[in-house]
Protein: ABC transporter substrate-binding protein
Amino acid sequence: MKRIVLALFSLVFLVGFLAACAGESSGDGKGKGKGDSSDPITLYSPETPDLTKELAAKFEELYGQKVNVHYAGTNVLVNQMMAEKGNPQADVWYGGGGLLPFESAVDKGIITKYIPESAEDWEVVENGIKMKHQDGYYVGTELFVLGFAYNTDLVTEEEAPKTWEDLLDPKWEGKIQFPNPAASGTATLMVLSHMMQYGEEAGWEYFQKLADQSNSIPDSGSAPTKAVAMGEAHIAVGFDFMAYEHKAKGETVDFVVPDKTPILVNPATLVEGAPNPEGGKKFMDFMLGKEAQQILANWYHIPINKEVESKTPLNIDSIKENAVDLDIDWVNENYDRIRNEWKSKIN
Structure:
Protein backbone atom coordinates (compact mmCIF):
# COMPACT_ATOMS: atom_id res chain seq x y z
CA MET A 1 0.00 0.00 0.00
CA LYS A 2 2.80 2.38 0.90
CA ARG A 3 4.43 1.69 -2.47
CA ILE A 4 1.17 2.57 -4.30
CA VAL A 5 0.77 5.85 -2.40
CA LEU A 6 4.42 6.74 -3.01
CA ALA A 7 4.07 5.97 -6.70
CA LEU A 8 0.93 8.13 -6.97
CA PHE A 9 2.66 10.99 -5.14
CA SER A 10 5.66 10.78 -7.47
CA LEU A 11 3.38 10.81 -10.50
CA VAL A 12 1.50 13.91 -9.30
CA PHE A 13 4.79 15.70 -8.60
CA LEU A 14 6.16 14.82 -12.04
CA VAL A 15 3.03 16.05 -13.83
CA GLY A 16 3.13 19.30 -11.88
CA PHE A 17 6.83 19.80 -12.62
CA LEU A 18 6.39 19.19 -16.36
CA ALA A 19 3.44 21.60 -16.49
CA ALA A 20 5.51 24.31 -14.81
CA CYS A 21 8.34 23.76 -17.27
CA ALA A 22 5.92 23.96 -20.17
CA GLY A 23 4.58 27.26 -18.84
CA GLU A 24 8.07 28.72 -18.61
CA SER A 25 8.91 27.81 -22.19
CA SER A 26 5.52 28.40 -23.77
CA GLY A 27 6.97 30.93 -26.23
CA ASP A 28 4.77 33.78 -25.04
CA GLY A 29 7.65 36.26 -25.54
CA LYS A 30 7.77 37.29 -21.89
CA GLY A 31 11.06 35.64 -21.05
CA LYS A 32 14.18 37.62 -20.32
CA GLY A 33 15.64 39.28 -23.39
CA LYS A 34 12.51 38.77 -25.54
CA GLY A 35 10.22 41.54 -24.41
CA ASP A 36 6.49 41.88 -24.78
CA SER A 37 4.01 44.61 -25.62
CA SER A 38 3.14 44.92 -21.93
CA ASP A 39 6.71 44.91 -20.56
CA PRO A 40 8.26 48.21 -19.43
CA ILE A 41 10.58 50.06 -21.82
CA THR A 42 13.84 51.51 -20.55
CA LEU A 43 14.96 54.76 -22.18
CA TYR A 44 18.50 56.11 -21.84
CA SER A 45 18.78 59.82 -22.63
CA PRO A 46 21.03 62.82 -21.87
CA GLU A 47 18.32 65.26 -22.94
CA THR A 48 16.56 67.53 -20.42
CA PRO A 49 14.93 65.21 -17.83
CA ASP A 50 11.63 67.11 -17.90
CA LEU A 51 11.50 66.70 -21.68
CA THR A 52 12.14 62.95 -21.64
CA LYS A 53 9.68 62.44 -18.78
CA GLU A 54 7.04 64.26 -20.81
CA LEU A 55 7.73 62.01 -23.79
CA ALA A 56 7.51 58.94 -21.55
CA ALA A 57 4.22 60.10 -20.02
CA LYS A 58 2.67 60.69 -23.45
CA PHE A 59 3.74 57.23 -24.64
CA GLU A 60 2.25 55.65 -21.51
CA GLU A 61 -0.97 57.63 -22.06
CA LEU A 62 -1.25 56.46 -25.68
CA TYR A 63 -0.20 52.82 -25.30
CA GLY A 64 -0.58 51.96 -21.63
CA GLN A 65 3.02 50.77 -21.48
CA LYS A 66 5.46 51.97 -18.82
CA VAL A 67 8.61 53.84 -19.87
CA ASN A 68 11.44 54.08 -17.35
CA VAL A 69 13.73 57.04 -18.11
CA HIS A 70 17.38 56.89 -17.12
CA TYR A 71 19.15 60.27 -17.34
CA ALA A 72 22.91 60.89 -17.52
CA GLY A 73 25.41 62.74 -19.73
CA THR A 74 26.09 61.30 -23.18
CA ASN A 75 29.58 60.01 -22.38
CA VAL A 76 28.33 58.46 -19.13
CA LEU A 77 25.52 56.65 -20.94
CA VAL A 78 27.83 55.38 -23.68
CA ASN A 79 30.25 54.03 -21.06
CA GLN A 80 27.35 52.45 -19.20
CA MET A 81 26.08 50.72 -22.34
CA MET A 82 29.60 49.46 -23.00
CA ALA A 83 29.79 48.03 -19.48
CA GLU A 84 26.35 46.41 -19.93
CA LYS A 85 27.08 44.73 -23.28
CA GLY A 86 26.88 41.27 -21.70
CA ASN A 87 23.55 42.10 -20.06
CA PRO A 88 21.95 45.20 -21.67
CA GLN A 89 19.52 47.14 -19.50
CA ALA A 90 18.29 49.78 -22.00
CA ASP A 91 15.93 49.36 -24.93
CA VAL A 92 16.22 52.79 -26.56
CA TRP A 93 18.85 55.54 -26.55
CA TYR A 94 17.58 59.00 -27.53
CA GLY A 95 19.64 62.15 -27.92
CA GLY A 96 23.25 63.17 -27.54
CA GLY A 97 23.59 66.72 -28.81
CA GLY A 98 23.45 65.46 -32.39
CA LEU A 99 24.49 62.40 -34.34
CA LEU A 100 28.24 62.25 -33.62
CA PRO A 101 28.02 60.01 -30.51
CA PHE A 102 25.73 57.65 -32.43
CA GLU A 103 28.17 57.45 -35.33
CA SER A 104 30.98 56.40 -33.01
CA ALA A 105 28.67 53.94 -31.22
CA VAL A 106 28.16 51.87 -34.38
CA ASP A 107 31.63 50.32 -34.09
CA LYS A 108 31.27 49.83 -30.34
CA GLY A 109 28.59 47.19 -30.81
CA ILE A 110 26.10 48.80 -28.41
CA ILE A 111 23.38 49.74 -30.91
CA THR A 112 21.54 47.78 -33.58
CA LYS A 113 19.63 48.40 -36.79
CA TYR A 114 16.08 49.69 -36.84
CA ILE A 115 14.42 52.37 -38.97
CA PRO A 116 10.74 53.20 -38.35
CA GLU A 117 8.46 52.67 -41.33
CA SER A 118 7.76 56.41 -41.54
CA ALA A 119 11.48 57.06 -42.21
CA GLU A 120 12.19 54.18 -44.61
CA ASP A 121 11.84 56.40 -47.68
CA TRP A 122 14.04 59.19 -46.36
CA GLU A 123 17.28 59.86 -48.18
CA VAL A 124 20.33 59.27 -45.97
CA VAL A 125 21.48 62.84 -46.72
CA GLU A 126 18.96 65.52 -47.63
CA ASN A 127 20.07 69.08 -48.40
CA GLY A 128 23.43 68.48 -46.75
CA ILE A 129 21.81 67.09 -43.56
CA LYS A 130 22.38 63.44 -42.66
CA MET A 131 18.89 62.26 -41.70
CA LYS A 132 19.61 58.64 -40.76
CA HIS A 133 22.42 56.11 -40.71
CA GLN A 134 23.15 54.54 -44.08
CA ASP A 135 22.93 51.03 -42.61
CA GLY A 136 19.96 51.77 -40.35
CA TYR A 137 21.70 52.13 -36.98
CA TYR A 138 19.90 55.36 -36.02
CA VAL A 139 17.24 57.75 -37.22
CA GLY A 140 16.94 61.51 -36.71
CA THR A 141 14.10 62.74 -34.49
CA GLU A 142 14.68 66.53 -34.64
CA LEU A 143 17.14 69.13 -35.95
CA PHE A 144 19.74 71.23 -34.14
CA VAL A 145 21.37 74.30 -35.70
CA LEU A 146 24.74 75.60 -34.53
CA GLY A 147 24.74 79.38 -34.54
CA PHE A 148 24.91 82.63 -32.57
CA ALA A 149 22.79 83.73 -29.63
CA TYR A 150 22.91 87.45 -28.90
CA ASN A 151 21.60 89.77 -26.20
CA THR A 152 19.06 92.08 -27.84
CA ASP A 153 19.67 94.81 -25.25
CA LEU A 154 23.35 94.90 -26.17
CA VAL A 155 23.31 94.00 -29.88
CA THR A 156 20.85 95.04 -32.58
CA GLU A 157 19.57 92.59 -35.16
CA GLU A 158 21.39 94.53 -37.89
CA GLU A 159 24.81 94.43 -36.22
CA ALA A 160 24.59 90.83 -34.99
CA PRO A 161 27.17 88.58 -36.72
CA LYS A 162 25.89 86.73 -39.77
CA THR A 163 28.92 84.56 -40.61
CA TRP A 164 31.61 82.75 -38.63
CA GLU A 165 34.16 85.26 -39.92
CA ASP A 166 32.07 88.11 -38.44
CA LEU A 167 32.93 86.84 -34.96
CA LEU A 168 36.49 88.09 -35.48
CA ASP A 169 35.37 91.70 -35.93
CA PRO A 170 37.34 93.81 -33.40
CA LYS A 171 34.09 95.25 -32.02
CA TRP A 172 33.35 91.86 -30.40
CA GLU A 173 36.67 91.64 -28.53
CA GLY A 174 35.99 90.54 -24.96
CA LYS A 175 32.27 90.13 -25.68
CA ILE A 176 32.06 86.55 -26.99
CA GLN A 177 31.68 83.19 -25.29
CA PHE A 178 31.83 79.73 -26.81
CA PRO A 179 32.12 76.26 -25.24
CA ASN A 180 35.45 74.55 -24.71
CA PRO A 181 35.99 72.06 -27.56
CA ALA A 182 38.09 69.89 -25.26
CA ALA A 183 34.97 69.32 -23.13
CA SER A 184 31.90 70.14 -25.23
CA GLY A 185 30.70 68.21 -28.26
CA THR A 186 28.89 71.34 -29.43
CA ALA A 187 32.18 73.21 -29.76
CA THR A 188 34.07 70.24 -31.19
CA LEU A 189 31.55 70.22 -34.02
CA MET A 190 32.22 73.92 -34.61
CA VAL A 191 35.97 73.30 -34.90
CA LEU A 192 35.71 70.24 -37.14
CA SER A 193 33.26 71.93 -39.48
CA HIS A 194 35.58 74.92 -39.96
CA MET A 195 38.60 72.69 -40.59
CA MET A 196 36.75 70.62 -43.18
CA GLN A 197 35.98 73.79 -45.11
CA TYR A 198 39.27 75.66 -44.77
CA GLY A 199 41.92 73.14 -43.73
CA GLU A 200 43.55 72.55 -40.37
CA GLU A 201 46.23 75.24 -40.57
CA ALA A 202 43.70 77.97 -41.34
CA GLY A 203 41.35 76.43 -38.78
CA TRP A 204 43.81 76.63 -35.88
CA GLU A 205 44.65 80.20 -36.85
CA TYR A 206 40.95 81.12 -36.83
CA PHE A 207 40.25 79.58 -33.43
CA GLN A 208 43.25 81.21 -31.80
CA LYS A 209 41.82 84.54 -32.94
CA LEU A 210 38.35 83.55 -31.72
CA ALA A 211 39.76 82.53 -28.34
CA ASP A 212 41.43 85.95 -28.11
CA GLN A 213 38.01 87.56 -28.74
CA SER A 214 36.32 85.68 -25.90
CA ASN A 215 35.87 86.66 -22.26
CA SER A 216 35.25 83.04 -21.22
CA ILE A 217 35.38 79.52 -22.71
CA PRO A 218 33.26 77.38 -20.33
CA ASP A 219 33.09 73.58 -20.50
CA SER A 220 29.30 73.45 -20.73
CA GLY A 221 27.66 73.67 -24.16
CA SER A 222 24.75 75.72 -22.80
CA ALA A 223 26.73 78.07 -20.53
CA PRO A 224 27.63 80.68 -23.20
CA THR A 225 23.97 81.18 -24.16
CA LYS A 226 23.07 81.53 -20.50
CA ALA A 227 25.82 84.16 -20.18
CA VAL A 228 24.24 86.10 -23.05
CA ALA A 229 20.85 85.99 -21.29
CA MET A 230 22.50 87.38 -18.14
CA GLY A 231 24.35 90.14 -20.02
CA GLU A 232 27.76 88.59 -19.27
CA ALA A 233 28.44 88.25 -23.00
CA HIS A 234 27.09 89.93 -26.11
CA ILE A 235 27.45 86.92 -28.42
CA ALA A 236 27.49 83.16 -27.76
CA VAL A 237 28.00 80.08 -29.88
CA GLY A 238 25.41 77.39 -29.21
CA PHE A 239 22.47 75.42 -30.55
CA ASP A 240 19.29 77.20 -31.60
CA PHE A 241 16.96 75.71 -28.97
CA MET A 242 19.18 77.03 -26.17
CA ALA A 243 18.55 80.61 -27.30
CA TYR A 244 14.84 80.13 -27.95
CA GLU A 245 14.30 78.60 -24.50
CA HIS A 246 15.67 81.80 -22.93
CA LYS A 247 13.67 83.97 -25.31
CA ALA A 248 10.47 82.11 -24.40
CA LYS A 249 11.07 82.99 -20.75
CA GLY A 250 11.03 86.68 -21.67
CA GLU A 251 14.80 87.12 -21.61
CA THR A 252 16.49 89.44 -24.11
CA VAL A 253 17.97 86.74 -26.35
CA ASP A 254 17.65 86.01 -30.05
CA PHE A 255 19.40 83.73 -32.52
CA VAL A 256 21.21 83.97 -35.85
CA VAL A 257 21.64 81.06 -38.27
CA PRO A 258 25.07 81.67 -39.86
CA ASP A 259 25.43 81.70 -43.63
CA LYS A 260 26.99 78.20 -43.60
CA THR A 261 26.88 76.11 -40.44
CA PRO A 262 26.49 72.56 -39.11
CA ILE A 263 22.89 71.37 -38.92
CA LEU A 264 22.48 67.98 -37.26
CA VAL A 265 19.74 65.51 -36.52
CA ASN A 266 19.44 64.40 -32.92
CA PRO A 267 18.82 60.64 -33.22
CA ALA A 268 17.20 57.71 -31.50
CA THR A 269 18.45 54.13 -31.75
CA LEU A 270 17.66 50.61 -30.59
CA VAL A 271 20.14 49.16 -28.09
CA GLU A 272 21.88 45.93 -29.13
CA GLY A 273 20.53 42.97 -27.15
CA ALA A 274 17.75 45.10 -25.63
CA PRO A 275 15.59 43.26 -23.07
CA ASN A 276 12.45 44.57 -24.80
CA PRO A 277 13.30 45.17 -28.47
CA GLU A 278 9.67 45.20 -29.61
CA GLY A 279 8.87 47.85 -27.05
CA GLY A 280 11.96 49.78 -28.13
CA LYS A 281 10.86 49.74 -31.76
CA LYS A 282 7.41 50.92 -30.72
CA PHE A 283 8.93 53.84 -28.83
CA MET A 284 11.11 54.81 -31.82
CA ASP A 285 8.01 54.76 -34.04
CA PHE A 286 6.32 57.02 -31.49
CA MET A 287 9.25 59.49 -31.56
CA LEU A 288 8.55 60.28 -35.22
CA GLY A 289 4.79 60.56 -34.75
CA LYS A 290 2.81 63.76 -34.26
CA GLU A 291 2.39 63.48 -30.48
CA ALA A 292 6.11 63.15 -29.69
CA GLN A 293 7.10 65.65 -32.37
CA GLN A 294 4.71 68.20 -30.87
CA ILE A 295 6.39 67.77 -27.49
CA LEU A 296 9.81 68.33 -29.08
CA ALA A 297 8.46 71.43 -30.83
CA ASN A 298 7.04 72.73 -27.54
CA TRP A 299 10.59 72.52 -26.15
CA TYR A 300 11.78 74.73 -29.06
CA HIS A 301 13.44 71.88 -30.94
CA ILE A 302 12.95 71.81 -34.71
CA PRO A 303 10.56 68.92 -35.47
CA ILE A 304 11.52 66.53 -38.24
CA ASN A 305 7.89 65.65 -38.98
CA LYS A 306 6.69 68.32 -41.40
CA GLU A 307 3.10 67.93 -40.17
CA VAL A 308 4.17 69.50 -36.86
CA GLU A 309 4.77 73.25 -36.79
CA SER A 310 7.97 74.60 -35.25
CA LYS A 311 7.57 76.95 -32.27
CA THR A 312 10.58 78.97 -33.46
CA PRO A 313 11.22 80.84 -36.71
CA LEU A 314 13.26 77.83 -37.89
CA ASN A 315 12.04 74.77 -39.76
CA ILE A 316 13.50 72.24 -42.17
CA ASP A 317 12.74 74.33 -45.25
CA SER A 318 14.04 77.62 -43.83
CA ILE A 319 17.42 76.26 -42.72
CA LYS A 320 18.36 73.74 -45.42
CA GLU A 321 20.25 76.30 -47.51
CA ASN A 322 22.49 77.07 -44.53
CA ALA A 323 23.65 73.50 -43.95
CA VAL A 324 27.32 72.63 -44.35
CA ASP A 325 27.83 69.25 -45.99
CA LEU A 326 29.71 67.44 -43.23
CA ASP A 327 32.07 64.57 -44.02
CA ILE A 328 30.94 62.35 -41.15
CA ASP A 329 33.71 59.78 -41.74
CA TRP A 330 36.34 62.53 -41.43
CA VAL A 331 34.63 63.81 -38.29
CA ASN A 332 34.71 60.35 -36.71
CA GLU A 333 38.35 59.81 -37.61
CA ASN A 334 39.52 63.16 -36.25
CA TYR A 335 37.11 63.89 -33.39
CA ASP A 336 39.31 62.74 -30.49
CA ARG A 337 42.54 64.02 -32.04
CA ILE A 338 41.23 67.55 -32.57
CA ARG A 339 39.79 67.69 -29.04
CA ASN A 340 43.16 66.69 -27.61
CA GLU A 341 45.10 69.10 -29.82
CA TRP A 342 42.91 71.99 -28.71
CA LYS A 343 44.42 71.74 -25.24
CA SER A 344 47.95 72.27 -26.51
CA LYS A 345 47.36 74.58 -29.48
CA ILE A 346 44.94 77.20 -28.12
CA ASN A 347 46.17 79.48 -25.37
